[in-house]
Specification:
With 211 residues, this protein is of the alpha+beta class. The chain has two helices and nine strands; from the N terminus they run H-E-E-E-E-E-E-E-E-H-E. It has an eight-stranded antiparallel β-barrel.
């Protein structure tokens, strides 16, 4: 009888330990998944861009993803000087980039060419001089498009230099883009004095990839 009781207690302890270990394993997996999902929210790189219809210069961060890291999403804040206006302005840009392929320029893969990139982005300008709906001082439908929100498209090329990990970055990328926006495209088709080269602008930039 005692042997039977000890056997039952032993079986019960074994079942409890198995269930506890399984629950602990599930908890660890959920915790790893939770941490992994949060890690995905951490930006993968910083960018500095000059011009590009988003201010004189812009600073921001972004994320790369996809099987070959061919997609990028940028968030950029820019600075637009006074020029002929009354005050300077801050801009905000949400940008999506596509890099279809890369070419190694040497055997050690120190230099990598990205021969073609395509970008779509939305740019918002903050300030009273720009608006979404035209002010009352203008005749109705005087402006058919918003002056503070632009939809842009750009194409470019990049060259990347990979170095041995130092600090927080493991490679730096130089890029240029040639782009235009919805207002320029509309102006091109409604104004016969504009040529195709008048509606495109050049921008330059640097991308610092994190480890």
């Amino acid at each position: 009888m005692k042997w039977f009781i000890f056997k039952c207690i032993g079986c019960g302890c074994l079942v409890f330990m198995t269930v506890f270990a399984d629950a602990q394993t599930r908890h660890e997996r959920l915790q790893e998944k939770y941490q992994s999902n949060w890690a995905k929210l951490v930006p993968r790189y910083n960018k500095v861009q000059f011009a590009g219809e988003m201010g004189l210069f812009s600073l921001g961060c972004g994320w790369d993803y996809g099987k070959k890291r061919q997609w990028e999403t940028d968030i950029l804040f820019g600075y637009l000087p006074k020029f002929g206006g009354k005050e300077w302005h801050i801009t905000f840009t949400l940008k999506e980039n596509y890099i279809p392929w890369r070419v190694n320029l040497n055997e050690r893969k120190k230099w990598v060419l990205e021969p073609f990139t395509a970008s779509l982005y939305i740019n918002k300008i903050f300030g009273n001089e720009f608006w979404t709906k035209e002010p009352d001082k203008y005749p109705e439908k005087y402006y058919n498009v918003a002056t503070n929100l632009r939809f842009n498209i750009a194409f470019g090329q990049r060259i990347r230099f990979n170095w041995d990990p130092r600090g927080l970055s493991d490679h730096i990328t130089f890029f240029y883009e040639v782009g235009t926006n919805d207002l320029y495209i509309i102006s091109y088709f409604t104004n016969k004095y504009l040529s195709i080269t008048d509606i495109f602008s050049l921008s330059l930039g640097l991308k610092f990839q994190f480890l």
